[in-house]
Amino acid sequence: MSTVALSRPSLPSRPTSTGTVAVVGLGYVGLPTALALLGAGRTVIGLDVSPARLEAIRRQDVDLLPSDLDRLAAAVDDPRFALTDDPALLADASVVIVCVPTPVDAHLVPDLDALAAACATAVAHAVPGQLLMLTSTTYVGCTRDLVLRPLLARGLTPGEDVHVAFSPERIDPGNAHHAQDRTPRVVGGATPRCTELAAEALLLTAPSVHRVSSPEAAEMSKLYENTFRAVNIALANEFADNCRGLGLDPLEVIEAAATKPYGFMPFYPGPGVGGHCIPCDPHYLLWQLRGLRIASPLIDTAMTAIAGRPRQVVQRVRELLGDRGRPLTGARVLLVGVSYKPGVADLRESPALEILEELGELGASAAFHDPLVPSARLHGAVLHSVADPAAEEWDLIVVHTVQPGSDLAWLAGREPVLDATYRLSGVPAKAVL
């Protein structure tokens, strides 16, 4: 094990109520969380199993909001901030926060490996007086299965010897409007005392905390949040298809409906859904419900529709090329923007990857341009961003993600252009999904 000490802090020998906070997992949730806690005056241990990730953080070569990049620049010289892959240092913390990915596999089955390993590490190094708090989205009962029961097996009674809670993360990558210090948190502890201690820790970086009766209620609240979004995005996509069939502009219709001040919340169509939240989290619920023989047909249908959206993009590409007498095989197709959302360099679950792969499998010559993403790995091959797409000829251009500050005026004279964002203006020959 190695510790990259950004000036190694003096860590307390045992946890105290005002002491060190350890953050396990330094990804898109864990690193901003660690920086926010450091800004709140705490000594912070950042633990990650990847030496490469630790080194990237030390170099400040990470995808963060500008405000968090400024925080990181200051943190590298702060004696209260330590980066490490040594789990033994968890015993020095008064609070341990687990923030690791909870993806699904190729069969849309939850992949709990990272979370199970992180929880096992936290439990193995837990000491009396400590608070262990999970934030990773997962199934209902995970905190009990992976933390509470193993602690009891170690002879540590939750609520007495140690404290345990679940508080779902609420990080919106690339969105400065939803900063942690303006976003309420939900928390449920194993006991009322656990809940209160967790709330006290959360209030270091959140404006308010909503307490629920149990870790399970907090776990379910997160699943409901993202399932709500998934179902409504699936509906927006379907409604956009309906509008095209009726010769209507879906955005015009959505914006008109959104003028109603009650009973409606606008969701917008697109080429699919990416990231590790909406396309993944509802499958944790569906997986658990299937095991209990509980049907959830609305959610199931919505997630099937979301999974199939990138294939709809490919089919629309085929249709538009066919309308011009051009077969898909051999066609030069460019995707503009490949990250899963604007303002980030994040390719996790991005629909663009599936679109590029399927286009390639069908014989098209597929390429991409994204100012934030220099390269993307597809089936083991590496595809590099086209530096100057305006200088090349394309049989069809698909606008997938419009990065902030991008000048797409060069698209005005191109045709056909498939606008999968539904928001492109100034392109007379554009089509939509």
From TrEMBL:
Domain UDP-glucose/GDP-mannose dehydrogenase C-terminal stretches: 334-426
List this protein's GO terms for biological process.
polysaccharide biosynthetic process
- Give EC number(s), comma-separated: 1.1.1.-
Task: Recite the UniProt keywords alphabetically.
Answer: NAD, Oxidoreductase
| The organism's place on the tree of life at top rank | Bacteria
One GO MF term: oxidoreductase activity, acting on the CH-OH group of donors, NAD or NADP as acceptor
Q: Which InterPro entries match?
A: 6-PGluconate_DH-like_C_sf, NAD(P)-bd_dom_sf, UDP-Glc/GDP-Man, UDP-Glc/GDP-Man_DH_C, UDP-Glc/GDP-Man_DH_C_sf, UDP-Glc/GDP-Man_DH_dimer, UDP-Glc/GDP-Man_DH_N, UDP_ManNAc/GlcNAc_DH
NCBIfam families on file: NDP-sugDHase (TIGR03026)
Family per UniProt? Belongs to the UDP-glucose/GDP-mannose dehydrogenase family.
Task: Output this protein's name.
Answer: Putative UDP-glucose dehydrogenase
Native source organism of the sequence:
Kitasatospora setae (strain ATCC 33774 / DSM 43861 / JCM 3304 / KCC A-0304 / NBRC 14216 / KM-6054) (Streptomyces setae)
List the taxonomic lineage: Bacteria, Bacillati, Actinomycetota, Actinomycetes, Kitasatosporales
